[in-house]
Design brief:
Layout lengths: L1 H20 L1 E7 L7 E6 H4 L3 H17 L3 H26 L4 H8 L6 E6 L1 H27 L10 H13 L9 H9 L23
Antiparallel strand pairs: 1-2, 1-3
Length: 211
């Protein structure tokens, strides 16, 4: 589940980067002296937060590899907030009544010289798609954090894994039910993972098995 969320975060970051490169708004100006001028604003120029938010998604994808439990929930919340922010940036471009004034300010041209404007919906649409992907990834991370068992055996030290092996064999688990790593740890300690623990043989030191 975490791997799927990581893949979605990477896809979302790439989609957001693509949205930042696409044209979002175009403004046309004419000062009465020269030829009419057209200025095209990309997504990164219209919303400077797009690229940083894409980097946040990539950082969250990397962080999901190293954190579990409460920290993974915190990453999920961060991704959800980031997704909501991305959605706001995309939708605001759609619903903004007039993009000409803001476009002129961003293009650094006089508002008095404006003769027309045009908005492009593809960039903002891809940003909204990236937001949806981020929200789905946040849900998967939150679910993974809720279902993960703390202190899983694969993260335990060899002694703890060996104790887990003995406990499983005592409960009737077969050697096939154990992980290969657990069996190798038990063998490294000089014990048979498929046998039940018994009294030490005469003349042997139980603390020096296999030495």
């Amino acid at each position: 589940m975490i791997r799927i969320a990581q893949a979605l975060l990477v896809v979302g970051a790439l989609a957001l980067w693509l949205a930042s490169r696409l044209p979002w708004v175009e403004v046309s100006t004419f000062d009465g002296l020269g030829q009419p001028k057209t200025s095209t604003l990309s997504g990164a120029e219209w919303s400077t937060a797009l690229v940083p938010l894409a980097l946040v998604l990539l950082a969250a994808a990397v962080a999901a590899l190293a954190v579990r439990g409460a920290l993974l929930r915190a990453v999920a919340v961060l991704v959800a907030v980031t997704g909501a922010g991305i959605a706001y940036l995309g939708i605001s471009q759609w619903v903004l009544h007039d993009v000409a004034v803001r476009g002129a300010n961003l293009a650094e041209v006089p508002v008095s010289a404006l003769v027309g404007s045009q908005r492009f919906y593809w960039g903002a649409g891809i940003a909204v798609v990236a937001a949806v992907i981020a929200l789905v990834a946040a849900g998967l991370l939150m679910r993974a954090a809720a279902t993960a068992r703390p202190g899983a055996t694969r993260y335990a030290n060899p002694a703890a894994r060996r104790d887990a092996v003995r406990s499983e064999t005592a409960d009737g688990a077969s050697a096939d039910d154990m992980t290969e790593r657990m069996m190798w740890d038990a063998l490294d300690e000089g014990s048979d993972p498929t046998s039940e623990p018994g009294p030490p043989e005469p003349g042997t030191d139980p603390d020096k098995k296999g030495r």
